[in-house]
Each structure stands twice: as structure tokens, then as C-alpha cells.
Amino acid sequence: MLEIQNLTKVYDNTIRAVNNLNLTVESGEIFVMLGANGAGKTTTIDLILGFIEPTEGTALINGIDIVKEPLEAKKYVAYVSENVMLYGNFTARQNLDFFTKLGGNKDATKEDYDEAMRRVGLPEEAFKRRVKSFSKGMRQRLGIAIAIMKNAKLVLLDEPTSGLDPRGGAEFLELLQVLKSEEKAIFMSTHDIFRASQIADRLGIMSKGNLVALMERDEIVKADLQEIYMEYVQSYNYDQVGEVAETITEDTDDER
Ligand SMILES: Nc1ncnc2c1ncn2[C@@H]1O[C@H](COP(=O)(O)OP(=O)(O)OP(=O)(O)O)[C@@H](O)[C@H]1O
Ligand SMILES: [Mg+2]
Question: Is 19 in contact with 187 (CB distance < 8 Å)?
């Protein structure tokens, strides 16, 4: 469903935010991308969404090239960011109606919206409430309901669980299972190793724009993910720490 081919993004001719990424995500599969701050996760998602242009390579969504046919490709994608974009003065149902119609589905009924909101676990009393009173978890749920209504085949999520409390985070994983059971292809970025290991069918680790590790479910279950993550992601910091340590040693020598 998602096929990333040699995807590369260089900012300002210097920052190689994503470097020659190759990856596929199938329908009914949850792919989780781990990586430190600045690893290139958001840039990857922005490239797949067609928000920014790649320096090289492309991504195919449902076989459609996001660079060559962005409007067609975008029909098959839904996006849930850390802070879901909603209209605060609209009710939940009105937001759902607005974004569903924007996504090209003009025939949806009130019943369809309510059904989608029930599926993501929003309480009935919230359907008619303005979303500016919603908690972060409720906004996330509505974001997923929008994705369900759009009937997107690919759902991209950028750190969707950040800022959710433990229960909200756990419930969010259940929502992802709902999407998976609907045969969506799911690509999610996170810093949360614990949740990643619970939910991922396949898992990648990005470091400085490179995909440095790729694991299947059976490996994820067995592995000490924390250790593997540290090994790959901390190497950059080790170099820096090394330099600082050397400088300190020299200073000490001078004083003596
Ligand atoms: N618009 C931009 N212009 C220049 N550099 C950018 C831009 N956006 C991102 N970068 C750089 O690209 C690299 C990757 O950033 P990106 O936001 O993709 O990382 P990330 O993995 O999402 O990090 P985080 O976990 O902090 O969200 C970083 O070095 C970042 O500074
Ligand atoms: Mg990011």
C-alpha cells in the first residue's frame, strides 16, 4: 500500500534529513518508526504526504506516485499528527462532517458520523460538544474517526501518543488495532519504545536520516528494544561526549 523508494530530503544543501529510504508497508500492517529528535521521522511523513518535495526518490501510495500525481495519491491517505487540527468552535460531529466532505466523501450521513465516533470510543455526550473543550485524547480519537470516514487506505501518524496519559496511550493502541482490522496500512512515528514493541508488526529505527535497523514481529517480541535503540541512536551523542571529555582532560592537564 505504501512503497517508499530511494526517498531523500536534503535541506539547505546541507542537512540530509532523510537519506535514501526504502520501505514498504502492506495493508493490515502496523509499521512503527523509532528515532531520536531530529532523526528524520517527521520529514519522512511530510514527504509521503506531499507536504514537501523530495530531493530524490518518491513514495507510491496505492501504486500512485506522490510526486507525479499528488492530488490523486492524497485521496488514499489520512494523517493524524500529535496535535490534530480541528475547528474549536465546531462540534465533534461538525468537524467530522467538514473533514469528510473535504476528503471528497459527500454522501456520509449523521448516522455514519455517529457510528465512526462510537467506534473510536467517544462518548455520546461528546458528539455535540464543541471540540475546544476536548482533551488531547478525545482530539486524537476524533482524528482517527476522520481517518475512518475518509476511508483512507494508508494512515500516517506522527507521534500520536505523545502527551497522552498511560491509559489514553493504551487505549490509543486499541484504536490502531481497529484501523488494522479494517486492513489499513499504518505508518506511525514515536519515541515510545514500550508502546512500539506492543503494537508494531514491523519496526524501523532511524538515525540521522538513515534507516539503521528493521525488525519483524517475532524479533521485536524477543529483543531488548531499549538496548538496541540505545546502541543505534546514542552513537552520535557518544562521539560528542567523547570530544567534550577530551577537552576537559586537556584543561585539567594545563592547570597542573
Ligand atoms: N524546514 C526545515 N529546514 C531545515 N532543516 C529542517 C527542516 N525541517 C527539519 N529539518 C532538519 O531535518 C532533520 C530531521 O528533522 P525531523 O523533524 O524530520 O526529525 P524527527 O525525527 O521528526 O525529530 P523529532 O523526534 O524531534 O520530532 C533535523 O536535523 C532537522 O533540524
Ligand atoms: Mg518529528
Answer: no
